[in-house]
Amino acid sequence: MAGSKCIALIAHDQKKDAMAEFARRNQAALADWHIVATGTTGGRVLDACPDLKVTRLKSGPLGGDQQIGALIATGEIDMLVFFIDPLTPLPHDVDVKALTRLAVVYDIPMALNESTAERLIKTLNH
């Protein structure tokens, strides 16, 4: 991943369609990024945009959130887009909090909803 911009994409189950649609709408902009995604989210993004460069990690609850957190801590992630579902209880909520905390600690741009993600991707690609 050295030398290229890297974006992490994560979406809770009820937000995976929104993430796939976000990727489809922004496919040209995302083509300039290396994408790292949790398992199912990465699969959905690849289904919507097969030409994007996506590295799929484990599913979020099975360690994918921690894998992305480690990449943030080592400086390999430049931006985090995490479509959270605030209306569904999450058994791995502490993982989610840890991941967002790392994004804040390492001061990387982070979007937790579509409107913020749209603005960030447009701003960072100019």
TrEMBL record:
SMART domains (UniProt xref): MGS
Family statement drawn from the similarity comment of this UniProt entry: Belongs to the methylglyoxal synthase family.
InterPro entries noted in UniProt: Methylgl_synth, Methylglyoxal_synth_AS, MGS-like_dom, MGS-like_dom_sf
PROSITE patterns: METHYLGLYOXAL_SYNTH, MGS
PANTHER family: METHYLGLYOXAL SYNTHASE
SUPFAM superfamilies: Methylglyoxal synthase-like
GO biological process, any: methylglyoxal biosynthetic process
Enzyme class, first EC level, given as a word: lyase
Gene3D superfamilies hit by this protein: Methylglyoxal synthase-like domain (3.40.50.1380)
EC number: 4.2.3.3
GO molecular function terms noted in the UniProt entry: methylglyoxal synthase activity
Catalytic activity: dihydroxyacetone phosphate = methylglyoxal + phosphate
Residue positions of the active site: 65
Function, in words: Catalyzes the formation of methylglyoxal from dihydroxyacetone phosphate.
Record keyword Ribonucleoprotein present: no
Residue intervals passing through the bilayer: none
Binding residues annotated for substrate, in chain numbering: 12, 16, 38-41, 59-60, 92
Alphabetically ordered keywords of this record: Lyase
Listed name of the protein: Methylglyoxal synthase
GO cellular component: cytosol
Residue ranges annotated for the MGS-like domain, each copy included: 1-126
